[in-house]
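Journal club prep — side note

Before the paper discussion, L.F. wants everyone to see what a predicted structure for a comparable chain looks like in token form. Sequence:
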Amino acid sequence: MNVAIVGAGPAGLGVARVLRDIGVPDVWVLERGQVGQSFFDWPAGTRLLTPSFPANTFGLTDLNAISYDSSPGWSLKREHPDGAAYAQYLKQAAMVFGLDVQCGVEVSALEPQEQGLAISTSVGEIHANFVIWACGQFNTPSDGGIEGATLARHYAEIPCWQSISGDEVFVVGGYESGIDAAVGLASVGKRVTVLGRDAHWLMDDKDPSRALSPYTRQRLDATLAEGQVALVEGADVVAMEREAQGIRLFGSDGRSWLSPDAPVLATGFASGTKQVSSWFEYDDTGLPMLTPQDESTTLPGLFLVGPEVAHGDQLFCFIYKFRQRFAVVANAIAGRLGVDTSALEVYRACNMYLDDLTCCEDDKCFC
């Protein structure tokens, strides 16, 4: 095949759509499960942080759309779709766009060949001229390096909040997934204590990639008013031990807390590039290092799209952010194939082609 895209989530399907629009032939999306699998794996009730609204006819693309001509807000009739609903939008988009998706294909490794790349999969070896890695991070939960973390349950492993036993629950981590867990647990009658190393609920950064989103803050404020959630800042949990009365959580400053049942780990996610980690360099924060075209710095022909794309201080971890780099990757591949890229101008017109990152440096939010 010409281009193999690994992962049929919003990143994989979105970049496949751009390649289709400029006429790159023989593009396949390989997916280990079903289209939108990671969203089906979300805890029940977890919703997209960014709001969906069908303003496309006014030139304002839905923040959660993977193309300029679709809107989950319109198709799902939901402002903040849950995981299962958003996965249905992705399935519909793949069908309407006529994308070639092969499900049930798990990729385990990648090797450069004299011409192109050899992809080791569960259905045999596949050869491609280019590989676009579009796997998210939800299926690579991190324990944050906490000793004894196996005594806890990670956020990504919880099917629904009702499955958590006991009336009192400790959540380790105070960023988006930690606060979402706290709100979800409180909604089913639990008393929740959030132990946050960094008090993200107090941060006032204008970039929602670094502070709580407005949607999360709104839900947290409502839950705090009900008295079901307590927030503990500066709580850097480094170890857990089982005791007769529960699980003891130890902080780096000498404090400790006793959790009656297994606590919830909201300690983030490792890189989704694990299977191909030998072909990426990583910075001090663990993010893959990329060329200006979002290509691996060590293996030409291997590109990255999705929430791990970062350039300097700019993090592209939301759909409305990382979709702006699809056209950058498509332009790079098209250039090597001699494919006309004039069709990409519609993406630029719809704010879905960001190749000049200086526009992200100015403070454009004053009130």
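L.F.'s comment for the group: The chain has nine helices and 18 strands. Keep this in mind when we get to the figures.
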